[in-house]
Write a structure and sequence with these properties.
- The protein is mainly β.
- Helix content is 0%, strand content 48%.
- The protein has strands spanning 37-43, 46-49, 61-69, 76-86, 93-102, 105-114, 119-127, 136-144, 147-154.
- An eight-stranded antiparallel barrel has the order 1-3-4-5-6-7-8-9.
- It starts with 36 loop residues before the first strand and ends in a 7-residue tail after the last strand.
């Protein structure tokens, strides 16, 4: 089953038909502040699971176990793991959930993407450790068949006081 893939990793994340799902900063400040953005490069490793009728159909799944790199793409800073499920009759519409596993904690993302598009946006739904309580969005762009550029846009203060 061939599909255009956007990964997200994450966020996670992961995501598109799937090649979803990024690049992170090696060191973060003790708190992640409102308006903070983490830039990532994601290299995807996807597995497709063809359920139901042969070929693209509702319920087909795409699992990603991806590597996350800093924005230069040279230093691995984490992993992006996620799952996308084809929804409806369109072979390009996917519902995706992903987790970006970074040195200072995890960031969870989810949303609906159209894998026929090269860009996608997912909601940040939460996080752990330094990213506990975060909100925002993950904006991704397909660079090539196995690489995504990710911008993790945090819009709420996170971290422990």
């Amino acid at each position: 089953m061939q599909k255009k893939i956007l990964v997200i990793g994450i966020g996670a994340a992961v995501a598109a038909s799937l090649a979803l799902v990024p690049t992170v900063m090696a060191k973060q400040t003790p708190r992640t502040e409102r308006g903070h953005t983490i830039k990532l490069v994601e290299r995807t490793n996807l597995t497709s699971i063809d359920l139901g009728a042969p070929g693209p159909s509702a319920g087909d799944q795409f699992a990603g176990d991806n590597r996350l790199f800093d924005q230069t793409g040279n230093t691995q800073v984490g992993n992006g793991r996620g799952l996308c499920v084809q929804v409806g009759e369109s072979a390009t519409v996917l519902y995706c959930t992903a987790t970006l596993q970074l040195p200072d904690g995890d960031i969870a993302v989810q949303g609906v993407i159209d894998s026929s598009e090269s860009d996608f946006t997912l909601s940040i739904t939460g996080g752990t450790d330094k990213y506990r309580g975060v909100q925002g969005q993950l904006v991704g762009a397909q660079v090539d068949a196995t690489t995504l550029s990710l911008s993790v846009e945090l819009s709420k203060s996170a971290g422990r006081e």
